């Protein structure tokens, strides 16, 4: 049977993953920040982006990542504000790094996730420094780096465990995509 690039089952799976990513992204904004400084989050929604990259492919994961940023910021009421630009920059830089590391099979899911998390935080701080016109914002990165590394490893471990269940692989096999 010839595999079709986008069948109804794949679209449904993508819709479910996007809904989960948006729900986790919005829910995370209600949780208290991690660590002694504000603005630090677990990155639960990025778990689904990484899972999508490994299980469905580059374009599907890129779509999920960008749609998640757009929808979460619309729902939070921060669309086109500083938080949106920081989130978008973090998503783009971290996705580019994760996709590259995945393509060249340099790290496992844990390493790919950790690098993505660290670069996500870096991009957010860089955008903050640009918007606020001060390099002093980079001192904040000293606090973000260890937490980003820890949460990235945690999300990578979760992706590894989810992939071990082969649930998405079975869905792909059963529905021809």
List keywords for this structure.
177 residues, globular, mainly alpha
List the helices and strands and how they pair.
Blueprint: H1 8-28, H2 44-55, H3 58-76, H4 82-103, H5 109-132, H6 141-164, H7 167-175
Helix pairs in contact: 1-2, 1-3, 2-3, 2-4, 2-6, 3-4, 4-5, 5-6
Radius of gyration: 16 Å
Total domain modules:
1
Q: Structural class, judged by helices and strands?
A: mainly alpha
Biggest sheet, open or closed, and with what strands and sense? Answer: none
Distance between the termini: 10 Å
CATH class annotation? Mainly Alpha
- Shape descriptor: globular
* Overall average residue pLDDT: 86
Q: Strand-and-helix sequence, N→C?
A: HHHHHHH
Measured by DSSP, the beta-strand proportion falls in: under 5%
How would you describe this structure to a colleague?
With 177 residues, the chain is mostly helical. It has a single domain (8-169), classed as Arp2/3 complex 21 kDa subunit ARPC3 (Orthogonal Bundle), CATH 1.10.1760. It is 74% helix and 0% strand. It has 7 helices and no strands. The N and C termini lie close together (10 Å). The model has no long low-confidence stretch (mean pLDDT 86).
What's the short story on this structure?
This protein has helices at residues 8-28, 44-55, 58-76, 82-103, 109-132, 141-164, 167-175. By secondary structure, it is an all-alpha fold.
């Amino acid at each position: 049977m010839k595999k079709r690039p986008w069948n109804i089952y794949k679209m449904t799976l993508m819709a479910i993953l996007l809904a989960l990513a948006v729900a986790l992204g919005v829910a995370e904004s209600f949780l208290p920040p991690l660590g002694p400084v504000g603005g630090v989050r677990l990155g639960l929604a990025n778990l689904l982006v990484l899972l999508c990259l490994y299980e469905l492919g580059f374009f599907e994961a890129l779509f999920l990542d960008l749609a998640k940023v757009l929808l979460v910021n619309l729902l939070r009421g921060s669309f086109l504000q500083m938080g949106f630009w920081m989130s978008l920059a973090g998503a783009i830089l971290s996705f580019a790094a994760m996709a590259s590391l995945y393509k060249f099979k340099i790290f496992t899911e844990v390493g790919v996730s950790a690098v993505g998390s660290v670069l996500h935080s870096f991009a957010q701080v860089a955008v903050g420094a640009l918007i606020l016109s001060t390099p002093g914002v980079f001192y904040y990165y000293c606090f973000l780096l260890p937490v980003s590394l820890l949460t990235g490893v945690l999300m990578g471990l979760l992706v590894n465990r989810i992939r071990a269940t082969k649930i998405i692989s079975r869905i792909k096999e059963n529905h021809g995509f």
